[in-house]
Amino acid sequence: MPTELEELVGFIANPNPQIRKLATENLVPYSISQPSIFKADELLPVKHLKFLIRDHPAIAEHALTMLINLTADSAILEYVAADDRFIGILLGLLVDPAEPNANLLAMLLANLTKWEGMKSILDRKQDPPDTLKSDQLVLNQLLDLFVKGNDGSYNKHADFDYLAYVFADLSKHADVRQFFINAQDYDGVIPLNKIKVFTEHKSDIRRKGVASTIKNVAFDVPAHAAFLDEDKVNILPYILLPITGNEEYDEEEMMGMLPDLQLLPPDKRRDPDHSIVQTHVETLTLLTTTRAGRELMRSVNVYPIIRETHLRVDDEGVREACERLVQVLMRDEAEPGAQPDAEAEDEDNRIVEI
């Protein structure tokens, strides 16, 4: 005979909405403590939860919360993420400006993009709502949602911060990196330029996801020229400002820095999240892969900022990242026209996943 808990799981598919509401509400804690009960009958309970994301908002809220918890399991993750029809429903609900559970939908999508097969979202299309004024390409819709939805300005129920994690996971794929660095036909904007402005946002989630996305895209070495070009992405100010505090530099050092980093206010603080600081420093290290990148960083006095970050951030990961970057910035370059050392040349063109 089924246990009381197994019977309760069966009630999430009950025709009576009051029973469904009571069942889903009481099952939420068990989606963390006993996820195995949702794997019965070849994941039938998970199938029912997928149907419920379009149910009454309160029922949908509980269903989404459970799906977020349950997709920590790799088998359930693939079962949900590989359901093309379900992904279409999720994305359609996400861009609805009146959707009350939009943030939970964004959180679930952030989980689903950890599945390798979700990179196919790059080619996915859907008609955007008139209120979004976006492209048919889903990735462009998500980017515009992330920007326009900031602080509840698109949907009063949501801030869409968790889309930053969606971008971070998707940008691990080479073809998605290409998307982020190429201007889109419908608005002429490079996608990376839409998200770089959030590196100093108040939301830890936004800052962390955006920092990781920038770093992942920086693994594309041919894109470094665009990264550093003031007329294209001009990424350096958006990476350096979050890792800069209110330190005082001598006049020569300060005047050699980028204009955005000169004469900062006395209350300027570097990012309090050490993992974000480390990510930005690692991105700078990736951008030293080319000689042009190294020389630009030397010319705009990146070293003093890294020196102060190393001194003032009490975190081993940050310090090690700073030390790696300093080793590259302080080493001598071969004279122009000189025969390059084979080992050094090989090192220049090698990127190692951090």
UniProtKB/TrEMBL annotation:
Q: Give residue ranges for domain Protein HGH1 C-terminal.
A: 283-336
Gene3D superfamilies cross-referenced by the UniProt entry: Leucine-rich Repeat Variant
The family line of this record is: Belongs to the HGH1 family.
| Name assigned to this protein | Protein HGH1 homolog
Region feature (Disordered):
333-354
Domain of life assignment? Eukaryota
Cite the Protein HGH1 N-terminal domain residue spans from the record: 94-277
What is the protein's species of origin? Answer: Thermothielavioides terrestris (strain ATCC 38088 / NRRL 8126)
Q: Enumerate the Pfam families for this protein.
A: DUF383 (PF04063), DUF384 (PF04064)
Name the SUPFAM superfamilies for this protein. Answer: ARM repeat
